[in-house]
Amino acid sequence: MRLLASLLGGYGVAALACMLLAQTLPLSRLDAVLVGTMVSFSIFAMMIIRLFSLRSHLRVVLEPVALCSLLYGLTLVLG
To answer: For the chain, N or C: smaller number of CB within 10 Å?
Structure first.
């Protein structure tokens, strides 16, 4: 359960962070997408490490959901 939640949650957070960075960085469109993609790899790794360090299974599921909803809301508002 922890593995599946960390993989899916980490991917969701990394993908939404990539979208947000690509939309908000003051670079050309190509450079913003490249920077967002490169940063998303480190975000994905950090999320997996973070979720494996948690003790509660409920927090393993709720933390990525909360971060995804926050990032999605920011993407809608700022994009």
So the answer is: N
pLDDT in tens, 3-15: 999 999 999 999 9
Handedness of CA 56, 58, 61, 67 (dihedral sign): negative
C-alpha 44/C-alpha 10 separation (Å) is 5
pTM (2 d.p.): 0.93
Which residue from 10, 13, 16 is spatially nearest to 48, judged by alpha carbons?
Answer: 10
Q: What is the CA radius of gyration of the chain?
A: 13
Write the DSSP assignment of 2-64 as a string of letters: HHHHHHHHHHHHHHHHHHHHHHHSSS-HHHHHHHHHHHHHHHHHHHHHHHHH-S-HHHHHHHH
